[in-house]
Amino acid sequence: MSNLNLFGPELVVDNFAGGGGASEGIEQALGRPVDLAINHDATAIAVHTANHPGSEHAVADVWDIDPEQAVNGRPVGLAWFSPDCRHHSKAKGGRPVSKAVRGLAWVAARWAAKVKPRVIILENVEEFLDWGPLIKGADGKVRPDPTRKGQTFRGFVSCLKRHGYQVDWQTLRACDYGTPTIRRRLFLIARRDGLPIMWPKPTHADPRVPAVQRRKLKPWRTAAECIDWSLPCPSIFGRKKPLAEATLRRIAKGVMRYVVEHQQPFIVKLNHTASYYTSFRGQSLLQPLQTITTSPGYALIAPHVTKFRTGAIGHGCDEPMHTITANSNATDSKANPGGCAPFGVVSAFLAKHYGGVVGADLRQPLPTVTATDHNAPVAVSLLNLKGSERGGSDITQPMPTICAGGTHAAAIAAFLMKYYGKDVGDPQGPVTVSIEGEQYAIVDIGMRMLQPHELAAAQGFPDGYQFAEVEGKPVPKYAQVRLIGNSVCPPLARAIVEANFTHEQRFMPLPEVA
C-alpha cells in the first residue's frame, strides 16, 4: 500500500459505499481506511464493515446525512460518489426512469456547497453524460427527453464550477488498469485547490498491441483466471428442468464459434502424471473478462467426459470435477496410449444469458458484471478419436473403453445441428474438433452460472474479501451478486486516487512536524 495520508487531519468520505469497491481502492492508494462510509442498505454496510472495520459507518440515505454534522468541522480531502447508475444506463432501454434516482448525483454538489471537499470523484455509466430533463410520453410514462440530452449534466458541472472547482471527466476501462473485466465507466474529477487534475496511465492492454509485445504494458488479465475450475459443471442434457430454448440456442452457437470453428479454442488438459492441484496444461485465456454489472450474466460451460460403451451411461455431470482447476493438467492419447489413465481435454468458453449475445472467449476480459448474474461458463468435453478405443468417464476417474461413433456423440451432433440452424437429419458420427492435428469428438456439454467469488475476482477484489459471510451469518447469493455488480472496480479506484494524490507532495510538501 501507499502511505499518502492526504494533508493533516483531512477526511475521506465514501458516499454510496456499497460493499466497498471504491473504499478498497482508496484504502490501497492511501494506505489507510476511509473515515466515513455511507449507504442506505444495511446488508451493504454489514459487508463493508466486515472488510473495512477501521471506517465509521452510516446506514442512511445520502440525503439524510448533513455534511457539516458528518465532518464536525474537519476538512475533507476526498469525497467519492458512486450514485445509482441504473436509470442512466443504456441497459434500461426505453423503459420509464425515476427522476429521484437520476438526480442522486446532486448530493455531490451539496457536499461541495456545505463542506467544500478538496477533491471530488464521481463514478457512473457513460450515459451519465446524457443526463437531461424528463418528458412524459403518450403512454403517461416518464422517459428522458431526447431533444435535451446532456442539459442537466452541463448544469451539474456548472454548479461545481460556481463552488470553485475545476472539473474534468474521462471514460476508463477497468481492464486497462489490471482488472480482468472490460467494464467501462465515466469518472468525473473536481478539484478546488489549484492543483492539476491527473488521469492514471493504462498499465495493461490487448496482448496483440506493440506496447505489450515490447513489455511496455502488461497484457490484459483474462476471464479464465477468475474461474474456479474445481466446481462441478452439470451437463445441459437430461436435466430435471430442461434449459430454455433460447439458452440452448446460445450454447450451441457458442460451441460452434468458440470450439468447433475456432482456430485456437481454449483448452484445459488434465495430465495424469501431475498433481491435479499443482499443474496446469492448457492455453491461457489471454484477455480480460467483460464488464461485470449488478445483473451479471456470465456462465462457464465446462467439458464432462462420458462413458461410451454398451449399457454405460457415464458418470453424472452433477458430480464434482475437481480435476478441472485453473492449475490442473491433462494428457491426450499420444501420451497415454493405453487409454485407461485419468484423461481429459476440455474446451471452455463463457456464455451470456441475455438476448442477442452468443458468448465470449475466455482469453478476453470478462464482460461487465451486473447486479443480476447472466454469465455462465460452458465446458465442452472432448475425446481423442485416434485409435479404436479410448477411455471415458468422470475426469477424476480412469476412462473406460469408448467408441468414437457412440450414440452420445451423435446426440451432440443432433443438438448442434438443430440449434446452429442446420438440418438435423440422421447425424453421421460425432461432431469433431481438430486440436494440434488430432481429431476430438464432443461427448458432452456442461454449464453452470459463475459464482460470487468468481465475479468478485473478475471485478478486481483481492483474495479474502468477505462477501459470503458477515458476523457469522451467510449473505444470500443474490445479495452478494448485487453488491459485486454494483461495486466500483478496486484497481481502477486505486489508480485514480493515486494519480490525484501521489503528485501532491511535489506541488505542496507536507508541513514539517514541530
What labels would you give this structure?
single chain; 22 strands; seven-stranded mixed sheet; 2 domains; 514 residues; 23% helix; alpha/beta
Structure description:
The protein has 2 domains: 11-219, Rossmann fold; 245-450, no CATH class. With 514 residues, it is of the alpha/beta class. The protein has helices at 21-30, 42-51, 67-71, 99-102, 106-114, 151-162, 210-213, 245-260, 407-419, 452-459, 477-485, 490-501, 504-507, and strands at residues 11-14, 36-39, 56-59, 76-81, 119-124, 134-136, 142-144, 166-173, 184-191, 204-205, 218-219, 267-270, 281-282, 297-301, 344-352, 374-384, 390-391, 401-402, 432-435, 438-449, 469-470, 473-474. The strands form 6 sheets. Strands 3-2-1-4-5-9-8 form a 7-stranded mixed β-sheet, with helices on both faces. Strands 12, 13, 14, 15, 16, 19 and 20 form a 7-stranded mixed β-sheet that branches. α1 (21-30) links the parallel β1 (11-14) and β2 (36-39).
List the helices and strands and how they pair.
Blueprint: E1 11-14, H1 21-30, E2 36-39, H2 42-51, E3 56-59, H3 67-71, E4 76-81, H4 99-102, H5 106-114, E5 119-124, E6 134-136, E7 142-144, H6 151-162, E8 166-173, E9 184-191, E10 204-205, H7 210-213, E11 218-219, H8 245-260, E12 267-270, E13 281-282, E14 297-301, E15 344-352, E16 374-384, E17 390-391, E18 401-402, H9 407-419, E19 432-435, E20 438-449, H10 452-459, E21 469-470, E22 473-474, H11 477-485, H12 490-501, H13 504-507
Parallel strand pairs: 1-2, 1-4, 2-3, 4-5, 10-11, 14-16
Antiparallel strand pairs: 5-9, 6-7, 8-9, 12-13, 12-15, 14-15, 14-20, 15-16, 16-20, 17-18, 19-20, 21-22
Helix pairs in contact: 1-12, 8-9, 10-11
